[in-house]
Amino acid sequence: MSLFQLDFAKKKERELERKLKANDREYNLSFKYATNAIKTSKYNVFTFLPLNLFEQFQRIANAYFLILLLLQLIPAISSLSWFTTVVPLVLVLSVTAAKDATDDIVSINMLQSERWMNVQVGDIIKLENNQFVTADLLLLSSSEPLNLVYIETAELDGETNLKVKQALTVTGDMGDNIQKLAAFNGEVRCEPPNNRLDRFTGTLNNAGQKYSLDNNRILLRGCTLRNTDWCFGLVLFGGPETKLMKNCGKTTFKRTSVDRLMNVLVLCIFGFLAVMCTILAIGNRIWEQRWGSDFTAFLPREDGVNASFSAFLTFWSYIIILNTVVPISLYVSMEVIRLGNSFYIDWDRNMYHAHSDTPAEARTTTLNEELGQIKYIFSDKTGTLTQNIMTFNKCSINGKSYGDVIDYNGQRLEINENTETVDWSFNPLADQRFSFHDHSLVEAVKLESPEVHTFFRLLSLCHTVMAEEKREGELLYQAQSPDEGALVTAARNFGFVFRSRTPESVTVVEMGKQRCYDLLAILDFNNVRKRMSVIVRSPEGKLCLYCKGADTIIYERLHQSCSKLMDITTEHLNEYAGEGLRTLALACKDLDEKYFKEWQQRHHVASTALEDREQKLDLLYEEIEKDLMLLGATAIEDKLQDGVPQTIEQLSQADIKIWVLTGDKQETAENIGYSCNMLREEMNDIFIVSANNTDDVRQELRSDDVLGSKVKVIKDEEVDGEFGLVINGHSLAYALDGSMELLFLRVACLCKTVICCRVTPLQKAQVVELVKKYKQAVTLAIGDGANDVSMIKAAHIGVGISGQEGMQAVLSSDYSFAQFRYLERLLLVHGRWSYLRMCKFLSYFFYKNFTFTFVHLWYAFFCGFSAQTVYDEWFITLYNLVYTALPVLGMSLFDQDVNDMWSFQHPKLYVPGQLNQYFSKTAFFKCALHSVYSSVVLFFIPYAAMYDTVRSDGKDIADYQSFALLTQTCLVFTVCIQLGLDMSYWTAVNQLFVWGSLTMYFAVTFAMYSNGMYLAAPASFPFIGTARNSLNQPNVWLTILLTSILCVLPVVAYRFLLIQLRPTINNKAKAAPLPPKRRAKIRRSSTRRSGYAFSHAQGYGDLVTSTRFLRRPAIVPSSGFTLLGRTTGPFVPSGVFSWKHRTLQLNCATCYTSPVCIETDSLERFSLAFNGGLSCCRRHDFAPNLTQ
User: Fold this and answer.
1) How many domains are there within the chain?
2) Among all residues, which ones are annotated catalytic?
3) Which cofactor does it need (predicted)?
4) What is the CA radius of gyration of the chain?
5) Residue 370 domain boundaries
6) Burial level of 355, CB count in 10 A (0-12/13-18/19+)?
7) What is the pLDDT of residues 169-214, one digit of tens each?
8) Are residue 412 and residue 550 in the same domain, yes or no?
9) 3-state secondary structure at position 152
10) Is 758 marked within a binding site?
11) Which domain CATH number covers 192?
């Protein structure tokens, strides 16, 4: 879609009910429903100029300069030419407009194809496997049995597990018959467009029959079709009326807090300017009345001009002369600074992700300093904090823990990318992408340990995973949750390969032998049971129940003989949980044939009961799932992105509050909270808000343990202890109601960590808006999917992560990069530097221009309030453009109070930005007072030095031109010295700019005041010879030195006393020792275990075992399985060595190969040999236990 696409959509009355007919465009067009075209840009060809100018003139200074331009067109009051204002004003407006157009172009979503745009409501469209759903559709038919389709909703809720939708039988019978689909004329009546992703109500009328429609029949825009060859759907909502776009929010014009503060300050400056000009105009009237008549002999008044009218003209003349209090170059410089700091982000190699070849990108150039003031971060979970990859990390089998790499001294080695992984060559069906580092588990499998084999047999049987095998040996698992996929993949690699399934059987290849188990029952998972079981019959006819679930649930159902093993396994589970892993307990049970047949009959009766079916089934499940034998436990890592815990810890130390807003389940969100170190065992309490009505939510939010009795007077910093808050989407809907939103916000702000789970995209935006509205804090939202677009747009700063969920978040963001960890550098380094540089720039810019302007004010009392300028006109023109422009730009682009390492070492350096300490109304007022003092010194010291002064040859030096030259020279030296005091980081560029500007001043001055320029244009260059006549006098240079010292002396004294008496965090950081280059890895210690690792949806077990089978039969597998490298003899554990004939034999602890033998007659000599360095043929280091 083009940036300037026309949008002729007209507003219509609010829609109460949607009516449409399939394949009847004429009927559907009569309702003027939205097309499927989406406009993500802010402007089009007609609206760009007026909208952009409207936005730019919201800057009061721009409006002021427009008024000033109009005044300069009046000759009676203007002492300056009109082009001195119109040229910079047009330049500023043009540069800003070009930048805004560029930002708008890059924000366009380029994923839309032309076909999508042409889709209309009522059309029937075909989708194929792995395609995005183009609009909100009613599913009509599919290629799968029973008209099922499988969709991935990562763009909507962040979840990558597959979900199942099913078409009505009446429409599913049409299949892919184009004639039948074209003849279909069903009429749909449904709810109007809305943002509810989890609800849909409607009816389908076809052939005189009415059919109910619910959310299970609907495919939403943004979903992806998976494992389904094709499907047909009827378009219900298109374009901006789809539920996805209803949740995306509106693109708004973002402005920084500095911009908003500047508007207030400019208003104050205008008021002060008006007061100054009024005082000077009154002074002019008084002067004209008392002394003006004395000068009429050689300065006659124009006709009709009296003292009052002269005062009126003088008022506007001083408005023009004193306009430099807010020069137009201020805004030009601000745009240049922002552009430069944006380039730093783009060029930062430390924010470049080599694996995906993704650099950081500043997609806007107007918000850089806002990055240094962030107080609240709102983060998505899936794909943002996590990689959305589950990995089988560790396990405990029969009391032994596997997964760690242990050296010969019994010390655990840290696993990194260089650690040797297990060789899967013995298993031709292994997934080569699966990595595991503990070789002892492979050896245990090869030694045919019964407990180990039973453990992995359970993982290969007890699940609802689907296997797809398009070519023999190439297995693709489709799991309802990534947790289950990781467990089944682990079993596959360790020799227990789940190959295929039917509703009645499961086929597994066990250590090269294909075995088919009869699947007799699946005891399905739900949120109450927190476990699932399968009952299978082995090929030998043995009945067995396999169960996996939350350890607390499994432990309650174990046989009493497992108590000792349970204690050991509990220690392992605590260790796994301490590392942030998600744990499951595994157990099994042999069943009696006679008992099972009787139980199966009762199960059939219960499963067909019309009343209390679930309760009856639960009782039967409880009955059979007891006296289980514990096998062990698994530990799965919901793999965080690199550096996430460290980044969150650093940002927390910078007093930035991080809220997680995710569409995932509560348990999943909590687990990630613990993994990221946001939730900790040391917290006083973690409160769960999960009520489903207004009163209960209000009651849970009013817990006295958190708020006390007087909630209104408790502030964030007064909370005694640390608390966490977890709230689900249903409760959040009530909490965000107008009557309860303040209560929710108070409770949330009292908690150190807030996690909102099962939230819709719109709720994410509502939470962000709530904090923006009542906390008056700068917010940042970060996400990677289309479900995060709404909060990215709502926050002051939106950050998109180019991850696995598409580019929608990136295209709507202000900044983008590939990994969450880069947020630390974006804020603590680039954001802080940008804010600090902008504040220094504004303070210095106002100082130098106020000082420049106030000298005119003092001079007015000595020139009869005649609006005569104290400086040469060329100096006025070049002061901001040449003499002082580059030094302040150099400071604003290159200055660093501390380097990036110090910024990471001292996160508290970020806090002053949150508190607006570097530039605020108070700082501005101090800057104004400093300018008043400097202007007094700059005017009266040269005035006193020049008064009644003569040259060394006796000639008079006290003329207006010499005084003007002396004053402006003192001014240039003073502002350059002040810049040097403000600058913390001197570079070659800064040196060049400062000394170059001083050189340029003298070069231009001598050139302008030369005889040649005067002869060329006498009226334009009247200061002939002033420079060479004045600057060769020692007393002039002494005056310059004295004036400069007096101007900066109070600043030096004040800063010295401030450092001694009230040092800031910057002063303390600079006094600290040099920080280390490497930060310690954060390791969480916890006794909490994950509730359960697999995030199923209830009912999947019924789907697997019913005739609604999920997949077609797999290719008949061959029985060939080559077991390479299997140990045939007794296995000797690595790390054991023995003395034989004074020979030391070592086995490599890493690769189990290449034993090393060393002849020695004493342990001391062996120690010397070992310290000299030993390695096997693969260069693995040895670390034997010398005490053995």
Assistant:
1) 5
2) 380
3) Mg(2+)
4) 38
5) 355-384+640-824
6) exposed
7) 899 999 999 989 989 999 999 999 988 877 888 999 998 888 989 8
8) yes
9) strand
10) yes
11) 2.70.150
